[in-house]
Amino acid sequence: MTRVIPSALKQALRVLLTSDPLGKVEQVKSLKRLWDQKKSIGKIERSEIPETPARPKKPDLVDPNKVPRRRLGSTEGRAAMLHAIAHIELNAIDLACDMIARFTHADEVPSDKKEQFVSDWISVASDEARHFEMLQNRLNELGYSYGDFPAHNGLWEAAETTNSDVAARLAIAPLVLEARGLDVTPAIIKKLTNVNDCDSVVILKTIYREEVNHVAIGIRWFNVVAKSLNQDPTDFFKTLVKTHFKGQLKPPFNVEARTLAGMPGAFYAS
After folding, report:
1. Residues 125/203, Cβ–Cβ less than 8 Å
2. Could you tell me the residue ranges of all domains in the chain?
C-alpha cells in the first residue's frame, strides 16, 4: 500500500492546529522532512486556517505592560528573558506556517515561484522550531520551562490585521517585527556576556545570525509581491506600515544587520 505524503499546506495546517509547544516543533520537523521527500504544495480551504493558532494553557497571556521586567543578574531574571524570547520563537513558528497555509496561492505570488515560496518559509519555520528547542533546553538547565512566566500576545495580534494581504503580512512580520529583533539582540547578548552566561550567549548568537536570513527572505518576497502589483517597494512598505502597524518604527536601528539582510535604509529612515 502506497503511503500518502501530506502536502505542504496540509502539514503547515497541522502545525497551526497543534497546541503543545514541543508537539508543534515535531510537526515542523515532519513538514521539513515531508517536503524534502516530495515537494507537494497541495491546497486547503481558507476556512480551515485558524485565525489564532492553537496554544498551550500556559503561559498566561497578559497585557504587555504587565509582563514583569527582571534583572539579568539573577538566574530567575535570565530565565524570564529567555522565556520571553522562546515565546517569540513559538509565535514565529506559527507565523511562518501561516504564511505557507494562507498565502502560497495568493495571486501576488507568481505561479512559477510558489515552490520557492514554500521552501523558503519551511526553512524559516524549521529554524524557529530549532530556536525554540534550544531555548526550552536552556530553560530546563536553569530549572525552568516554557510556560513558567507570563507572556503577551502582541506579536500575533500585530499579524492578525494582515490575514487577507500577503504584502502587508510580509511588511509587518519579517520586515518590522523580525527586523526589530536584529536591533535589540546584540544588547541582550552583551548583557548576558557581562554576567558570564556563556551558554545563553551561544544560543542567542545562533538565533541572531539566522534571523538575518529570515529578514532577507522577507525582503526578497516583499520585492516580488511589490513588483507583481506594480508598486515601488519603499513607498509601498511605508504605506503598509502606516495602515497595519500600531506605532512608529523607532531607532536605534541595527543598520549593519539590516543592510546584510538586504533591507534598504529608505525603508526605515524617517
Report:
1. no
2. 81-267
Residue 47 forms beta bridges with which residues?
none
Q: Does 1.20.1260 match the CATH number of domain 81-267?
A: yes
Place of cell 498565502: 103
CA distance between the termini of the chain: 61
| Contact (Cβ atoms closer than 8 angstroms) between residue 233 and residue 265 | no
pLDDT digit string, tens, across residues 146-181? 999 999 888 888 888 899 999 999 999 999 999 999
HEC readout, 128-193: HHHHHHHHHHHHHHCCCCCCCCCECCHHHHHHHCCCCCHHHHHHHHHHHHHHHHHHHHHHHHHHHH
pTM: 0.96
Q: Report helix, strand and coil shares of the chain as percent, to nearest 5.
A: 65, 0, 30
Tens digits of residue pLDDT in 17-52: 999 999 999 999 999 999 999 999 999 999 999 999
- Of 256, 262, 212, nearest in space to 237 by CA: 262
The Cα diameter of the chain in Å comes to: 61
